[in-house]
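>> received
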Amino acid sequence: MDDPICRVRLDLDLLGGVERREIRLRECHTGTLAQVGIGPEWRLGCGTGATRACDTLALVARRYDANTALIVVDVQNDFADPAGSLFVNGAADVVRMVNGEARQAVENGAFVVYTQDWHPASTPHFAKDGGIWPVHCVADSWGAAFHPSLTVSGPSVQKGAHGEDGYSGFSMKDAVSGATTSTALEGLLRERGITRVVVVGLATDYCVVETTSDARMLGFAVEVLAEGIRAVDLHEGDGERAIRRMRDAGAEIV
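>> returned
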């Protein structure tokens, strides 16, 4: 049997980390997925669906090791909740996907680290103070908190706390002087011997692309998971342009 509905649901569970079930695979080496899930059973026999399911699991497992870090960018209420001031369409899918990736990363010995916008109540970053953005992710507010469905499996690096533009997880830029300072992220990676990073989160055309670009500039190999990012698209096509920019910087988009 090659049931496309089951195959799609399996891929979503493996990569999206659907919390309602645990994944159990048996006899994968034979090309047969005998049983998936706890609760009501649904099965795939030998064939394309089973083979792709096994290939998907193997690909995710190979993605992570002790020299790899998963960087989860800004999955915060103001970006990921529909009530947030800068809600990004499709963020709910990102949260599910990120949870699945974080679980696989931890299980395979990788480091997981999170970034957060962490702004003061007034900053040149905000439209009310001369910038372009609505007030968002003010330190210690609901909007700055991680989305409640996000499973947090590692430390967080907060950026923009002194009014800087903190698009990248690695660096911040003073909105007045233009001076750039580093966050704690690079140090966290170097002290663990990390040479490669996997990037997911929000939003593609701002904090994801800047984090990815800085990671490449600092010499890290970078893989960006296309299903784990979403764009603001303040201007039509911003997300696609950001993806091209990441590719041009040497990141692999998968």
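>> Residues 66 and 110 are 5 Å apart (CA to CA).
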